[in-house]
């Protein structure tokens, strides 16, 4: 209870600080006070926000389902302990791709809004490449020093053994997550949120969860099977689809669409 309250308070403190910064002079060129013009195009903005929310929620809930499924195995204590350690390490690593997610989304949106399709494509390539290089470095670190890393969390021999069995999956999850969030950032910057939400729904919940159940319970691979099934059946497929969409994208056409949208909203405000 105390831990959850601490997390909740820290999030609200962050929200209040950002609100104060935005409205009290931190962004003088973008915030000039309250205006009725803020409600112009509100419905389109709400639809875009809802699509983004659904897209991100489907991704975040997916890994929570992994923990829930593991908790329903026979003798789940060691399995949940080992998986929680792996998810914590993965969560630490995810901060880097999530930073690329935010930065790439903003940069791609700015380039498209300026009519620069080549710039958006170049920003995508640079971001994915940089994040992938970092992911490869972390993959090597986990493969070489997983025993030392686990000692941060537990000294139990049973837990250490269980985590060692999951190390290869953790390493490849980290590598996969170095690409997937960046591509999601490209989707956000390009306005593809609704498409990605459907992709997430199909890959994660129509493929990944059933495949994880099949590997974990039917074939008796336990937590290893659940995680592998959900990763290769869901996350990997979703990443491949995003790679295909991104590489096949007509960036100049996307730039024209973005410019038309900006002009439409600018005229409606004027």
From TrEMBL:
Q: Which GO terms describe its molecular function?
A: antiporter activity; xenobiotic transmembrane transporter activity
Q: Tell me the keywords, alphabetical order.
A: Membrane, Signal, Transmembrane, Transmembrane helix
Q: What is one GO cellular-component annotation here? A: membrane
Native organism is Eutrema halophilum
**The keyword Transmembrane belongs to this UniProt entry's keyword annotation:** yes
PANTHER family for this protein = MULTIDRUG RESISTANCE PROTEIN (PTHR11206)
Name of protein: mRNA, clone: RTFL01-25-F14
What Pfam families does the entry give? MatE
Task: Tell me its family.
Answer: Belongs to the multi antimicrobial extrusion (MATE) (TC 2.A.66.1) family.
InterPro entries (alphabetical): MATE_fam (IPR002528)
Kindly indicate where the leader peptide sits in this chain.
1-26
Which residues are listed as membrane-spanning? 78-102, 122-145, 166-189, 195-219, 226-245
């Amino acid at each position: 209870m105390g831990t959850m309250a601490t997390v909740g308070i820290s999030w609200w403190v962050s929200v209040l600080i950002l609100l104060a910064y935005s409205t009290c002079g931190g962004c003088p060129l973008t915030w000039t006070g309250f205006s009725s013009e803020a409600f112009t195009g509100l419905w389109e903005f709400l639809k875009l926000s809802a699509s983004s929310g659904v897209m991100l929620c489907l991704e975040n809930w997916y890994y929570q389902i992994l923990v829930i499924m593991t908790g329903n195995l026979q003798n789940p204590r060691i399995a949940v302990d080992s998986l929680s350690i792996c998810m914590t390490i993965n969560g630490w690593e995810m901060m880097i791709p999530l930073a690329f997610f935010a930065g790439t989304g903003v940069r791609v949106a700015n380039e498209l809004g300026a009519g620069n399709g080549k710039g958006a494509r170049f920003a995508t390539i640079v971001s994915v490449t940089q994040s992938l290089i970092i992911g490869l470095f972390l993959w090597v670190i986990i493969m070489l020093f997983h025993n030392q890393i686990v000692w941060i969390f537990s000294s139990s021999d049973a837990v250490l053994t269980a985590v060692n069995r999951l190390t290869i999956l953790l390493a490849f999850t980290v590598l996969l997550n170095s690409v997937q969030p960046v591509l999601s950032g490209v989707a956000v910057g390009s306005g593809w949120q609704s498409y990605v939400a459907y992709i997430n729904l199909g890959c994660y919940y129509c493929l990944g969860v059933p495949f994880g159940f099949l590997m974990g319970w039917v074939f008796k691979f336990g937590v290893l099977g659940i995680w592998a099934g959900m990763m290769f059946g869901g996350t990997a497929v979703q990443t491949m689809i995003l790679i295909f969409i991104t590489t096949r994208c007509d960036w100049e056409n996307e730039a024209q669409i973005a410019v038309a949208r900006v002009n439409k909203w600018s005229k409606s405000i004027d």
